[in-house]
Amino acid sequence: MPHSLPAIPAVRTFLPSHNTFSPQGTRVTESLVGALSFVPRFVASEAYEIELDAGEVVLRALDPAGLSHAKATWNQLKGQKHLPSGLIQDEPRFEWRGLMLDCVRHFFPVANLKTLLDRMATLKLNRFHWHLVDDQAWRLEIPALPRLTALSGEEFYSTAEVVEIVGYAASRGIVVVPEIELPGHSSAAIAAYPELSCTGESIEIPRTWGIFEQVYCASSEKAASILETVLEETCRLFPGPWVHIGGDEVIRKAWQACPRCQEKIRSESLAGERGLEEVFFQRFIAYLGARGKTAVGWNEMVEHNVPHSAVAQWWLHPDLAKKSLEAGNPLLSSNTEYCYFDYPYTPENSWYDEKYMKVIPVSKVYENPVVPPGCEHLAGGILGGEACLWTEHLKAGQENTRLDGRLEALAEVYWSFDARPGFPSFLNRARLLGLNGPSWQVQPPSQPGAGG
Predict the structure, then answer these.
(1) What pLDDT, on the 0 to 100 scale, is given for residue 443?
(2) Nearest-angstrom CA–CA distance, 102 and 129
(3) At residue 277, what are phi and psi to the nearest 5 degrees?
(4) pLDDT reported for residue 3
């Protein structure tokens, strides 16, 4: 009976008794234990149980992460006038439940990030994917390479601010996953250090959005050394086990015109520019692996022969998602049709661009199947997924206009998944929690050609 309790995400199991009580003033105790009253099936480290009774509410978990989730559930329940007595037994279906925030196209101050992390913790989301570099700016301070952030003015994150955010997130059970895009989406870095490119020519940072031809030179040891300096500092600043290396939307035109790249292709008998990109990925995935980090990349990365440990993030092309799972690479599900929260709730939203945006109401997010088409037999390789909030058309302070309702729905999808009690129940629990707004009610419009 998960729908009988006003909590988001829905609890997996609730065993009620016949009594009710008022939670106000009830004594609460917390404890880490060696075993729970149930055997977790999915993610034991995040499992918890809550014993609800008029005399005392007891929160139990196997691990601090689970205890944090128990407290998040209790904080939602305790605001109700009356609760049924009983036992909650709960755990997430997926271990990776996250949100990606693009802080490049528009900068988000530390205070905004902390507010967002608080909201994520309330919803038991546990991965903050921090998109820090792209064509339009470089937001991460690398002390050995000061020009990277100099071109972004004062809008970047100092090493001290990064440490602050990482610690703030960790205290809420959230791991920060930094993204350092390569080899494409690299205009800002090349503007700062032209020797990163094949030509060494100076360029301006683009002030528009889109996909640009600038890429890191895939045959230059000097460029590789600079990128290793970046990744070394990134590994130092972010203690979590993952570093995202992007890998999407790479235009190989510069490599075609680069004598040095062409010579590398010939001397190493590579399969053209595609083979050159493959060894580029392999080099930096190995570099991270030697430092105890697992590489994550957008699904284009698995077009290549990369180690099975590398995690692929599916955003487009279900065939690449299937290829990743068949190859043994873990998969994150961020399908644009359900998880791109920069897209509008309705066609009436002012930021709607019909040329490339789909309409994603809250109910559509809730229907996310997670598993790519034809991959049901490979579902065990799915780690979980993320919402993606790109900010070409979004400034700091406007994030709730894209997240409200959808973030709550996504949290329930990746926590409850097969135990989702249904969208009407979700809306009712949101109403009881005082969260339900007008945008939550919209049903999916007819979208010819849209998947799902």
Answers:
(1) 56
(2) 9
(3) -65, -35
(4) 47
The answer to whether 221 is a known catalytic residue is no
Confidence band for 355, pLDDT divided at 50, 70 and 90: confident
93 close to 415: Cβ distance less than 8 angstroms: yes
Query: What is the per-residue pLDDT across 48-94, written as a single tens digit (0 to 9) for each?
Result: 999 999 889 999 999 999 999 999 999 999 999 999 999 999 999 99
pTM of the complete model = 0.95
Q: Which of 46, 90, 91, 134 is catalytic?
A: 134
CB 441 within 8 A of CB 344: no
- State whether residue 142 is helix, strand or coil: coil
pLDDT above 80: residue 172: yes
Architecture of domain 96-432: Alpha-Beta Barrel (3.20)
Locus of tokens 């929260």: 341
Q: Which of 69, 131, 185, 304 is catalytic?
A: 185
Catalytic-residue membership of 249: yes
Helix (H) or strand (E) holding 259: helix 259-267
Choose the catalytic residue: 53, 63, 95, 249: 249
**Contact of 333 with 370, CB cutoff 8 Å:** yes
Number of H helices, E strands in the chain: 15, 13
Residue keyed to tokens 């390789």: 381
Phi-psi region of 370 (alpha: psi -120 to 50; beta: other; left: phi over 0): left
Residue 324 DSSP SS3: helix
Q: How far, CA to CA in Å, does 299 sit from each of 62, 206, 249, 286, 382? A: 34, 25, 10, 18, 13
Q: Where in the chain is the domain with CATH 3.30.379.10?
A: 2-90
Closest CA to 179 of 106, 126, 128: 128
What CATH number has the domain spanning 2-90? 3.30.379.10
Query: What are the residue ranges of helices labelled H in 171-220?
Result: 187-192
- Which residues lie closer than 8 Å to 263 by C-beta, 6 or more apart? 219
Q: Please, which residues have CB within 8 angstroms of residue 229's CB and are 6 or more apart in sequence?
A: 142, 144, 145
Q: How far apart are CA 47 and CA 328, in angstroms?
A: 26
